[in-house]
Amino acid sequence: MSRRTVLRDHHGERYSFQLRLLVAITAVLIGFGILLGRFVFLQVIQYDKYHTLAESNRISLVPIPPSRGIVTDRNGVVLAHNFSAYTLEVTPSKLPGKLNDTIDALAGLIEITAKDRRRFRKLLEESKDFESLPIKTRLSDEEVARFAVNAFRFPGVEIKARLFRHYPMGESASHLVGYIGRINDRDLKKLEEDERLAEYRGTDHMGKFGLEQSYEEVLHGKTGYEEVETDAGGRAIRSLRRSPPVAGSNLVLTVDIKLQQLVEQAFGDRKGALVAIEPSTGGVLAMVSRPGFDPNLFVDGIDPVSWRELNDAATRPLNNRAIQGLYPPGSTFKPFMALAALETGKRRPHDAIADPGFFILGNHRWRDDKLDGHGMVDMVKSIVVSCNTYYYKLANDMGIDLISGFMGPLGFGSKTGIDLPGEKAGILPSQEWKRKAFKRKEQQRWLAGDTISIGNGQGYNSYTILQLAQATATLVNNGVQYRPHLVGFIEDSASRERRPVEPQPAKQLPYKPAHIEVIKQAMVNVNLAGTSAQAFASAQYTSGGKTGTAQVFSLKGAKYNASTTREELRDHALFVAFAPADKPKIALAMIVENAGFGAQHAAPIARKAFDYYLLGKLPAAEAPAPAQPAPPSPPPSPPQSPIEEFMSRPHVD
Amino acid sequence: MWTKRLFKRITEPVDPWLLLFVLMLVSVSLLTIYSASNESMAKISSKLVSVGVAFSAMWLIANLRPQQLMWLAPIIYALGLILLFGVAAFGEITNGARRWLDLGIARIQPSELMKLAVPMMLAWYFERYEANLRLKHFGVAALLIAVPMILVLKQPDLGTALLIAAAGFYVLFFAGLSWKVMLSLLVITLASLPVAWTHMHEYQRQRVMTLLDPMADPLGAGYHIIQSTIAIGSGGLFGKGWLSGTQTHLDFIPERTTDFIFAVYSEEFGLLGNIVLLILFLCVIGRGLMIANNASSVFGRLLAGALTLSFFTYAMVNMGMVSGMLPVVGVPLPLVSFGGTAMLSILIGFGMLMSIQRDRKLMKN
């Protein structure tokens, strides 16, 4: 190897090496160029996307549920409110082991009853397992402390401070105030359809019954949000922004809770309903349905056993009889029939009939209560002595078209539109109704005989107590008809500003004042000298009224069990009344189921209501005794059909 | 007077350009680690210690002559091989792979050493046969690469094995491996990819799949890539500002002081910062290739070129991986990531570059 070759080789090699250095530099530049391209793509072209992703990584929106509006009666007595308490909540998906083991371990610290467990199991079925579900609500401070010390042993279990709904009146007014319950899958679907789901983020409960349900949107308020910065582990680092929740509005009812409770106590164990209305506004002063239930049971999710007890009870405590129970009005229908006769010109007040004690059409005989008849009967007397024959004849003379044409505008047979869910329309008998109601051709035709008992409030007549009360209020309010309502004002919970709910009259019915005066006077006479005179003896105000008795049988009961107990088949006692007579402040309609004659059982309750409402008198002596929920009413042996299936039996001999 | 002499003695072996760029990268590293560690001074002082150690090592190596490095090359290579066999026989298993060897005094990762030893050995080999290079020499060289590579592959550590292979290949490339051979190597590699796929471990396949479709498992294997890509993208043009990266400070970026530190840097300094970083890396690479160009010996040239391209490869692979272009392999960002060992081996390599540069100066003088 000579030195020269080496040198020459060196040069050649050097040249080749430098070429390769150039290639290497090019490769490096291309490599970094690709990286730069990638960076430009990510940081400039797709910046918005990644910016959004980073923000949503970092910020989570935590909903702040609003506090629900409270409900008070017309005098500010609280019927539904919220209180803050601790709950022990379990998130099933976060539990390391078996759910039951965890609950058993918890039971060692905090008393968990069998009822709590049943309730929890029911909640579990209705919820997703990543939801936090209460196993025990309203913990005492001591229980909170005991759990806090042991919290490390229970991953997936935590204590939460929450607002609870409470109904301080318990059973009282439960049908109208209603209750809230946990939002279930069906509610969620409904909310999603209404595009209101966003408002319920962070809220577990919503109105399920009564005013809580019908005024849900007013009571709920607006959900607030807190923007919270969270780290990758989901821990909140700090609050970025907060839009506070807007509390729901309060409801101020037209109801006087003292009146309500007084009536409830007066009913005692008896089943029935009462609706009292302020005629000049349509505001409902009391709406009673007996038996009642405790709405507080529903707030945390009712346990299945209690639910079955309530739902399956023969007395149907969950039904609001005032708006869902359909009854024949019986003789309380007579004043309206009389007014119809005057308005349609079929009778003048002094036109009198001779009552032989029955009415005959074709070969049918309709009987009067009084076997030998009431003698000569004019309109006032027909109401005071409650003469059936007068109205058999009147109905026959008027015909069904005229009757239904008059009763329809008074509100019979159609929903009043009261601010409660679940109201029933009832049945206003007419030719058209019968055509639609029956399937077979021969049943669809209206028969002349069908009309006869209609005038006495029997036959196909089937109305709610609310309709009866509204009609009474309209009558004594000279034909000015208001939509009955329970909420008087909606009150802004912050400013306390009140917005009235029902300011203008709904309808003016064109009745002659003189005609109304005749009817009112006749009803005053009823309370003075008629069927309810005893109940209103020595009252310090003049009042009007009309008793009624609806003969009842249950179609189903009769079919399935011929030996149904007497009590079920006993007549319903009805009563409509108003006072004071010259300028009525209160009008009511009521029914005491299976009680018998109206004057004896219903009228005294109305008397107590009037004494309190007009004079402020409370029945001191009686107050404590019936106030207590009496031992459960004797369970009736045969199955009783729902009340809306009660039908009246026409007076047919 | 003696201080001046001391200063001269200290600075004499050091290449000022390379040192400047390295110092700038280390500054970037300190800034980013401070942010990534949530302002932990402990992390910074620990990093400063490893910087000190690595710089001392660099300085010591820079003082050696290339001839001495050449003399050391086969010894280190042989030692590395023995240790690799040792790992295969007695290595500790961590995370399912046998990579560490406990020597009693310290636990070492011989594959790390191989990243330096392989190019040194090959450069030594080509220096010896520089006069009459034949294809068979390349064959021997390929074997010199293949043995350690296969040993590392068996650990298994695909990433490091590939990096070792790359370092060796760079030497072959600079030594003048013919274009035809390289082309056929490329074709063979591409053709064997499907075969390789079937021989890959499940977790390796997973990583490739994750790269292709990170959203397939956003909370599992794809999480790292998704979160680091979000960090980079959300940095935008100018970044969120130092200490203000939300992805960083809210723990969304995994391993953010080590392998994924680039995501932190990129989130806080944006595209502008990335360009600065790329320029710094380019400067280091440029200086390294310049040293290679100036080198007076074949050994120096090949070693300097290969070490520089290795450095480029680490940077490229790391940034490509963090920005979601390459599968996740455990390669830190050179000089920036927290790890002390990686820093040490890089700076030892740079010490060799300086030694090669200094030798030229000495020869000139």
Give the helices and strands, then pairings.
The complex is a heterodimer of chains A (653) and B (365).
Chain A: H1 3-45, H2 47-58, E1 59-64, E2 71-72, E3 78-90, H3 99-107, H4 114-126, E4 133-139, H5 141-150, E5 157-166, H6 174-177, E6 179-182, H7 185-193, E7 205-209, H8 210-214, H9 216-220, E8 224-230, E9 236-243, E10 250-253, H10 257-267, E11 272-277, E12 284-290, H11 296-299, H12 304-312, H13 321-324, H14 334-344, E13 353-355, E14 358-361, E15 364-367, E16 375-377, H15 379-384, H16 388-398, H17 400-410, H18 431-437, H19 441-444, H20 448-452, H21 465-476, E17 480-481, E18 487-491, E19 498-500, E20 507-508, H22 513-529, E21 544-550, E22 552-554, H23 555-560, H24 566-569, E23 572-579, E24 586-592, H25 598-601, H26 603-615, H27 624-627, E25 646-648
Parallel strand pairs in A: 2-10
Antiparallel strand pairs in A: 1-8, 2-3, 3-4, 3-5, 6-7, 8-9, 10-18, 11-12, 11-24, 13-16, 14-15, 17-20, 18-19, 21-23, 22-25, 23-24
Helix pairs in contact in A: 10-26, 14-16, 14-17, 14-22
Chain B: H1 2-11, H2 16-36, H3 41-63, H4 66-90, E1 92-94, E2 97-102, E3 107-108, H5 110-128, H6 135-153, H7 158-175, H8 179-199, H9 202-212, H10 223-235, H11 246-249, H12 261-294, H13 298-322, H14 340-364
Antiparallel strand pairs in B: 1-2, 2-3
Helix pairs in contact in B: 2-3, 2-12, 3-14, 4-5, 4-6, 5-6, 5-7, 5-13, 5-14, 6-7, 7-13, 10-12, 12-13, 12-14, 13-14
Mean pLDDT of chain B: 88
Find the count of extended strands of chain B (DSSP E, 2+ residues): 3
Radius of gyration of chain A: 36 Å
Largest interface: A-B, 41 and 44 residues
**Measured distance between first and last alpha carbons of chain A:** 146 Å
Q: CATH fold name of the largest domain in chain A, please?
A: Beta-lactamase
Q: Number of folding domains of chain B?
A: 2
Q: Report the top-level CATH class of the largest domain in chain A.
A: Alpha Beta
Strand order of the largest sheet of chain B: 1-2-3
Find the structural class of chain A using helix and strand composition.
alpha+beta
What is the distance, rounded to the nearest whole angstrom, between the alpha carbons of the first and last residues of chain B? Answer: 24 Å
CATH architecture annotation name of the largest domain in chain A: 3-Layer(aba) Sandwich
